[in-house]
Amino acid sequence: MTTENLTTLEVLLAEQDEPQLTAAAFKDVFRRHPAGVAVVALRHGDQPVGFTATSVISVSAQPPLFAFSLASSSSSWPAVSAAQTLAVSFLADHQGDVSARFATSGIDRFAAGGWTALPTGEPVIDGAVSWIRARIVQRTPVGDSYLVSLRALDAGTTQAPPLVYRDRSYHRLSHGTAS
């Protein structure tokens, strides 16, 4: 097969003889990269499903597209793979406990409350900086994960400062001005 028949990603993944970072070194780099913290939530049947994500990225303003990644081994993947819509709540700086709860496996992440269902059914986190309701437009397998691409349908915002995650701990942004 020639490279003309392969996508760019397939070509890159096929170049296995090149030196590459170990998983540990790769994780170490991204632990030092600060990221906003979000909770992705949806309905799966009658049950709410949600998880913490620091991989949410803006893709396009016109049309309004964004994405997140999710491991194919995640307990939330079956719900995301079947969903049509979901909501992403960007957490406020006082919501480290919410982030930790939605990152914990084997518990009812919604039992403690602190969330509200939108009229369309998707859960959003109360007191979050902002939220976006979105339609899933594509689920792309990449490595051992999926890149889930979304089209923004509706949103809400507050004036709360954001929660930031870096090097395995939560941080608050100073309220000073940027230079």
TrEMBL record:
GO molecular-function terms, A-Z: FMN binding; riboflavin reductase (NADPH) activity
Keyword field: Oxidoreductase
InterPro entries referenced in this protein's UniProt entry, alphabetically: Flavin_Rdtase-like_dom, NADH-dep_flavin_reductase, Split_barrel_FMN-bd
GO BP, sorted A to Z: pyrimidine nucleobase catabolic process
KW Oxidoreductase (keyword) present: yes
Signal peptide positions on this chain: none
Domain of life where this protein originates: Bacteria
Pfam family of the protein (one): Flavin_Reduct
Flavin reductase like domain mapped to chain residues: 30-172
Protein name (record): Flavin reductase
Lineage of producing organism: Bacteria, Bacillati, Actinomycetota, Actinomycetes, Micrococcales
